C-alpha cells in the first residue's frame, strides 16, 4: 500500500514540475520576441534615402509600435 501512495505522490510531483516548466517556457518564449526598432533607426534609414518600403517592413517584422505626438 505504501508503494502505491509513493507512486501517486511521485506522479503528482512530476506533473507539477512539468506544469511549471511549460508555464515558464511560455512566458520566456513571449519575452524572446523581436527586438524593438528604435525611432532613431527609422530616422537614420529615411535620411539615407532607403525608401518607405524597407522601413515599413522592418517596423512590421520587429512588431514595434510608436507613441507619436501631434
The overall strand count is 0
Q: Which term fits the overall shape? A: rod-shaped
Radius of gyration: 24 Å
Distance between the termini: 73 Å
Structural class determined from secondary elements: mainly alpha
Average pLDDT, all residues? 78
Q: Strand share of the residues?
A: under 5%
Molecular structure report:
There is one protein chain. This protein is mainly alpha-helical and 70 residues long. It folds into two domains: 1-33; 35-70, no CATH class. It is built from three helices and no strands. The protein has helices at 2-31, 39-47, 52-62. The radius of gyration is 24 Å and the shape is rod-shaped. The relative contact order is 0.09. The model has no long low-confidence stretch (mean pLDDT 78).
In short:
By secondary structure, this protein is mainly α.
Give me the secondary-structure topology.
Elements lengths: L1 H30 L7 H9 L4 H11 L8
Which structural traits does this protein have?
70 residues; 2 domains; mainly alpha; 0% strand
Amino acid at each position: 500500500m505504501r508503494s502505491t501512495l509513493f507512486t501517486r505522490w511521485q506522479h503528482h510531483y512530476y506533473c507539477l514540475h512539468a506544469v511549471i516548466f511549460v508555464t515558464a517556457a511560455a512566458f520566456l518564449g513571449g519575452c524572446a520576441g523581436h527586438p524593438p526598432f528604435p525611432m532613431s533607426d527609422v530616422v537614420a534609414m529615411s535620411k539615407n534615402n532607403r525608401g518607405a518600403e524597407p522601413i515599413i517592413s522592418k517596423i512590421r517584422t520587429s512588431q514595434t509600435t510608436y507613441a507619436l505626438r501631434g
